[in-house]
Amino acid sequence: MAFKHRTDIDLLPSYKQGKPAPKSNRHTYKISSNENPFEPLASVKAAIVDDALSHINRYPDMRGWGVVERLAKETGVAPENICLGCGSTEVITQLVQLLAGTGDEVVYPWRSFEAYPIIVATAGARSVQVPLTSDGHHDIEAMIAAITERTRLIIVNNPNNPTAVPVSDADARTLLDAVPDDVIVLFDEAYFQFNTDPNTAVAMELFQEYPNVVVAQTFSKAYGLAGLRIGYAVAPEDVIDGMRKVALPFGVSRVAQTAALASLDAYDELNDRVQVIISERERVLRALRSQGWTIPDAEANFFWIQFGEKTEEAEQYFIKAGLSTRVFAGEGIRFTVGEAAANDLVIQTCSKLKTVGLLV
Ligand SMILES: Cc1ncc(COP(=O)(O)O)c(C=O)c1O
């Protein structure tokens, strides 16, 4: 760029959006962004039309008080412990902006959610990326060893994107017990509702026990509102106050707030869909493992195959089959659990990959 600007931004990777479904005469599928494959609920659409659309000439309630109070009731915390953002991406951004500036460090597992390095570098802080263990778990001891005087935030991604591996309650407590009380630990639980691991950490429980826990959740995944951009954080009151100071003013639209409330009203119906996605995930994993694939524990609405150097070659087979996946060059492919037909295509394509020597 020829204009005077922050040259540290030049070093940032651009956030890569999941590719759209491949173009073809046949039906093709987008399983690249961990979206919910179900169409929006009729009740959610009706609430948007009935309530929100007629107010789009007005700014939304900046605090999102209706949603905040409702979430407070559901989660058993005070409304002062909750703030909203444009997806959980924004609440994570708010938190990093609040806590970490020039010279400060943010510790998180890697590979993990691609937005973390961008958010941290944009704040002027330094990422301390702690490699996952070879089976995709957070390396808790290494994360503890990475804490320094300059550490301002530690991020736990449970289950981790893109590996889908959960973090156990025991591991979370080992970490929390080792972290100084004045350093925040963020539990990014974007895929919380898909996590059926009986040993998993549950950040809302840890929030009640430790003074330095922040929880980030989203309406994008289980609630199927990815296109409306609404997520939230649960945090100590003074942290919420700080996060709100750095929030994008009026970032969460009334349309998003209305849809979130209607979705909370329709929780049972949405939860039925989550259960369908979980059982599809289990069906696909069973099929692939019986073909011989090595796949780490998957507790999200996606799973991970570590193709290593065969990644790009394998991707071509999925594109040919009509599937856009999320590819991490030289590392592996993340597959969103989508419609049953898309999942069938994943199973069939993996079977084909096996015959051409790409089984890992
Ligand atoms: C681990 C993780 N955290 C947070 C998010 C943010 O989602 P959103 O901003 O839509 O709430 C994502 C989205 O893919 C994610 O994978």
From TrEMBL:
CC cofactor: pyridoxal 5'-phosphate
GO biological process: L-histidine biosynthetic process
EC class name: transferase
Pfam family, one: Aminotran_1_2
Annotated EC: 2.6.1.9
Residue span(s) of domain Aminotransferase class I/classII large: 30-321
UniProt cross-references to Gene3D superfamilies, sorted A to Z: Aspartate Aminotransferase, domain 1 (3.90.1150.10), Type I PLP-dependent aspartate aminotransferase-like (Major domain) (3.40.640.10)
PANTHER family, per database record: HISTIDINOL-PHOSPHATE AMINOTRANSFERASE (PTHR43643:SF3), HISTIDINOL-PHOSPHATE AMINOTRANSFERASE 2 (PTHR43643)
NCBIfam families: PRK03321.1 (NF002878)
Stated family: Belongs to the class-II pyridoxal-phosphate-dependent aminotransferase family. Histidinol-phosphate aminotransferase subfamily.
Name the record gives this protein: Histidinol-phosphate aminotransferase
